[in-house]
Design brief:
There is one protein chain. By secondary structure, this protein is an alpha/beta fold. Helix content is 42%, strand content 11%. The strands form 3 sheets. Strands 1, 2, 3, 4 and 7 form a 5-stranded parallel sheet that branches. β8, α10 and β9 form a beta-alpha-beta unit. α9 runs parallel beside α10. The chain is globular. The structure holds zinc ion.
C-alpha cells in the first residue's frame, strides 16, 4: 500500500509536537506481536500489522530510546515529532516476532519485564484466555466463584467470556488471583496450558544484546495500589535486582503494572520507584508528556487499530489530547 497520506500525518504531528521546550512526547505501548490474527482478539498486532505500523511510525515520528527521550524532555531539547516504543510484560514473541521488525526499520524499543513469569511462567490473564480458548465445553459455569456463567460455542462467545472474567479477577489479591485462575483452568477442562508464552533468560539476553533497553515491571505484576509500602517496594526491587544481576547492567526505567494512576498505583509508589534508583517511569494514562510532566509518571498510549490510516489518526488524536482509550481488558 502506498504511503501517500504520510506527508499530511507528518505535517500534523510536527504542528502538534514541536521541538524544544514545547515538545510533546508520544510513548506507545505494545504487549504481543502474534504470528497471525488471533480469532479471539482480532485487534492484537500481528507480524504484518506491526511491520506496517513501524513503517508508518518511522515516516511520521522521530523514534528515540525512552531513556534519552525522558532526559531530553526534561532538558527541553527533544526534536519535533518525538515518540518512543515500549513493550510490557516479557512475551517471547517480542523477541521472535517484534525484534526482527524493529531491527529491519532501525527502531529502538524498551521492554518492561515482570520477572517471575520468565522461563515457563504464565500471567494470570493468559491462564484465563488459554483456558477459555482450549476448553471443549459448551459452557463455563463459574457462578459459585461469582464469575458468571458463560457460553463457549463460538469465538465471539469465548472472547466475551474472557472480557467479562478478566476485569473481575484482575484486582483480586495476588495469591487469591493465582488460585482463582487455576480453578478456572480446572473448571474449563482445558488440559495443559502453554508454558512458552513468556521469554526465557536467553531470549531476554538476546534482546538486551541487540541494544534494546530492558526496564522493570515488578516481579509478579501485582496491582501496586493494593499493596502496603513494604510489599510494593519489595515487588519493584526484586524485579529490578533480578534483571540487573542477569543482564549485568543498571535498570533505569520502570512501568507500573496495569498502570492507571490512582487506581493501579499511587503517588507514594512513584516516590518508591524514584528511591529505588530508577531514572523515569511510565503509566498507562493516555496522552502525551510535556517538559513539566512528572518523569516518574510519563503517559503512554495503546494504538489499537490494524488499519494503517486509523492507526495514524489515533496517534495524531493522542497528541492532540483527544485519544479514545481502548477498553479491551486483555492486557496490562
Ligand atoms: Zn503489564
Amino acid at each position: 500500500m502506498p504511503h501517500f497520506a504520510n506527508p499530511l500525518y507528518r505535517f500534523l504531528a510536527g504542528k502538534l509536537s514541536p521541538s524544544g521546550v514545547s515538545a510533546r512526547l508520544s510513548i506507545l505501548i505494545y504487549h504481543r506481536v502474534l504470528p497471525q490474527t488471533d480469532p479471539l482478539f482480532p485487534g492484537e498486532a500481528t507480524i504484518d500489522t506491526f511491520n506496517a505500523q513501524m513503517a508508518l511510525l518511522k515516516s511520521m515520528f522521530n523514534i528515540l530510546p525512552l531513556h534519552e527521550a525522558a532526559a531530553r524532555l526534561k532538558a527541553g531539547t527533544l526534536p519535533a515529532r518525538s515518540a518512543c516504543i515500549t513493550f510490557d510484560d516479557g512475551y517471547a514473541d517480542n523477541v521472535t516476532n517484534a525484534l526482527p521488525i524493529l531491527q529491519k526499520h532501525g527502531l529502538h524499543a524498551t521492554f518492561f519485564i515482570a520477572t517471575s513469569y520468565l522461563n515457563g511462567g504464565r500471567m494470570f490473564n493468559d491462564t484465563v484466555i488459554e483456558s477459555v480458548r482450549c476448553s471443549n465445553q459448551e459452557t463455563l459455569d463459574l457462578r459459585d466463584m461469582n464469575l458468571g456463567n458463560h457460553r463457549l460455542s463460538s469465538n465471539a462467545e469465548r472472547a466475551a467470556a474472557i472480557e467479562d472474567i478478566l476485569p473481575k479477577v484482575k484486582y483480586l489479591p495476588l495469591e487469591i488471583r493465582q488460585e482463582t485462575v487455576a480453578n478456572i483452568a480446572r473448571r474449563a477442562g482445558a488440559g495443559n496450558l502453554p508454558d512458552d508464552l513468556m521469554m526465557t533468560t536467553a531470549q531476554l539476553k538476546t534482546l538486551h544484546a541487540a541494544g534494546m533497553e530492558i526496564g522493570g515491571h515488578t516481579h509478579r505484576h501485582p496491582i501496586l495500589a493494593n499493596l502496603n509500602d513494604a510489599d510494593a517496594r519489595n515487588e519493584i526491587a526484586v524485579g529490578k535486582t533480578w534483571l540487573e544481576d542477569t543482564l549485568g547492567s543498571r535498570i533505569r526505567l520502570f512501568a507500573y503494572p496495569n498502570g492507571k494512576p490512582g487506581t493501579d498505583y499511587l503517588p507514594d509508589q512513584a516516590k518508591i520507584v524514584r528511591e529505588l534508583g530508577f531514572d523515569a517511569a511510565v503509566s498507562t494514562h493516555p496522552g502525551i508528556s510535556i517538559k513539566s510532566s512528572d518523569p516518574f509518571q510519563l503517559s503512554r498510549f495503546t494504538p489499537w487499530s490494524n488499519s494503517r490510516y486509523s492507526f495514524a489518526a489515533q496517534l495524531i488524536k493522542n497528541i492532540h489530547g483527544a485519544a479514545t482509550i481502548n477498553e479491551s481488558t486483555r492486557r496490562h
